[in-house]
Each structure stands twice: as structure tokens, then as C-alpha cells.
Amino acid sequence: MDITTLVSPENVIPNLKATSKKQALQELARHASQVSGLNERAVFDVLLDRERLGTTGVGNGIAIPHGKLAALPRLFGIFARLERPIDFEAIDEQPVDLIFLLMAPETAGADHLKALARVSRLLRDRTMCEKLRATTTADALYALLAASEAQAA
């Protein structure tokens, strides 16, 4: 599962403005709606439902909110670097500044889990996260994400 099959250049947000977890999820749902044609409220509701099961703030300033929607034809992701770190109720209680949203069709099954594992591996790399945090343009962030594929191969 390649990151570049999940995220396209237009799905990289270099400076997401949000002051809370809810606002970040709303902004991500809005962006997901714009690029996919999905209903914004449906995306937001799926993300909120998943957060109620337990936080997707995985620690070290990273969150991987995710969910499934029947209307979605394929897996896709959005990477966002927040303007300022926010409380995301992360497992380590540290604020989050890097978010990778992952959406999957309800029929995705193992592909959804493979995508989550790939994103998790990418964002566990401290050097990669330092580079992502130091980068301020969408093109440069996408280039870093795409370069991670070459390193993983």
C-alpha cells in the first residue's frame, strides 16, 4: 500500500487552522467533501463516531482519524500539518500537529487495515515527522510523503 495511492497533491494541507479536535475534524471533513464529492456531514459524523470509540491521537503529535463510508469508491487520505498544535486527547496527552485522515469504502476490509498500517509506519519515523514539521508548502510536504515510498521500497 503506497502513500501516494492514498494522498494526491491536492489532499495535502500545509497549514490547517484549527483550535480544537472537533474543528480539525470539521475542516478535514470539509476538505474531504470538496475533493471526493462525499457529503461533508456524513464524513464528519463517521469521524466523530470513530473518535467516540477511542482517540485516534496515537502519540508523538500525530493523529490518524479514519472511517468507512458506503458511498466511497476507493481508499483516500488527506495529510494536514496544523498551524498550531491542538489537544486531540492523544494517548500520550501531548498536542497533535500532524494529521493523516484515512477514508475507506465499507467494503475495504483488509485494504483499510493495510492502509492504516502503512500510514502508522510512515508517521512512526521520527526523522520523517521532523521533516514534515519543518516543511511549510503543500508541494514540499507531498514530495516528502512520495519520497517515503522510495525509502520503503
Q: Mind explaining what this structure looks like?
A:
The chain is of the alpha/beta class and 153 residues long. Helices cover 48% and strands 23% of the residues. The protein is built from 6 helices and 6 strands. The chain has helices at 3-6, 21-36, 40-53, 110-124, 126-134, 138-152; strands spanning 12-16, 57-59, 62-63, 66-69, 76-86, 96-105. Strands 1, 2, 3, 4, 5 and 6 form a 6-stranded mixed beta sheet that branches. Strand 2 (57-59) and strand 3 form a beta hairpin. Helix 2 packs across helix 3. The longest helix has 16 residues, at 21-36. The model has no long low-confidence stretch (mean pLDDT 92).
In short:
The chain is an alpha/beta fold and 153 residues long. It is built from 6 helices and 6 strands.
Question: What features would you highlight for this structure?
Answer:
153 residues, alpha/beta, six-stranded mixed β-sheet, 6 helices, 6 strands, 48% helix, globular
